[in-house]
Specification:
With 159 residues, the chain is α/β, with parallel strands linked by helices. The chain has five helices and five strands, in the order βαβαβαβαβα. The protein has a single domain (4-149), classed as HUPs (Rossmann fold, 3-Layer(aba) Sandwich). Bound molecules: adenosine-5'-diphosphate.
């Protein structure tokens, strides 16, 4: 049976840290769905469509990677798409504590769905979307923190 993993996140924007996790996970899973969480209560910098477009560009030549969005529970999205794994990246001990709580609650909600964690490459540890957004808002050059297929000048933020 095909091993399908869902990589859920805000990806506002998608960074080389996210890309690194997805590329390494291709060795483990047959298919990865990058699922952008559409949270009506959480205001994003880039629109949902822009975030999906950016990510699709990065993986346009990789048929085993799909880009989608979802609302509601991640485990419900996984069930709907036949995914038994939730993929997440870990940078720090703080990430671990946060991810542990989410994974244990997800397990309580759906015990046949496993959360799988990959440790980030050391050089990607300090990269996070919040800092990348701050650089962009302040007019700085954040291009080295996003995959080369994403030309930030092509996209506008919402504020
Ligand atoms: P969320 O809002 O769900 O935390 P993010 O887009 O911030 O969404 O992150 C999605 C996933 O990618 C999370 O598991 C996060 O820990 C991981 N991640 C974020 N930045 C990096 C990075 N630089 N290296 C590895 N993993 C990362």
């Amino acid at each position: 049976m095909k091993k399908i993993a869902v990589f859920p996140g805000s990806f506002d924007p998608f960074t080389i840290g996210h890309e690194g996790i997805v590329l390494r996970a291709l060795d483990i899973f047959d298919e990865i769905i990058i699922a952008v969480g559409a949270n009506a209560l959480k205001k994003s910098y880039y629109s949902l469509e822009t975030r999906k477009t950016m990510i699709s560009k990065v993986f346009r030549n990789e048929p085993r990677i799909k880009v989608d969005h979802y609302e509601g529970l991640t485990v419900d999205y996984c069930k709907k798409h036949g995914a038994k794994y939730i993929l997440r990246g870990l940078r720090t001990a703080a990430d671990f504590e946060f991810e542990r709580a989410i994974a244990q609650v997800n397990r309580a909600l759906a015990e046949n769905i496993e959360s799988v964690f990959l440790l980030t490459k050391p050089e990607h540890t300090p990269i996070n979307s919040t800092i990348v957004r701050d650089i962009i808002r302040s007019g700085g050059d954040a291009s080295r923190f996003v995959p080369s297929a994403i030309n930030l000048k092509d996209y506008r933020g919402e504020d």
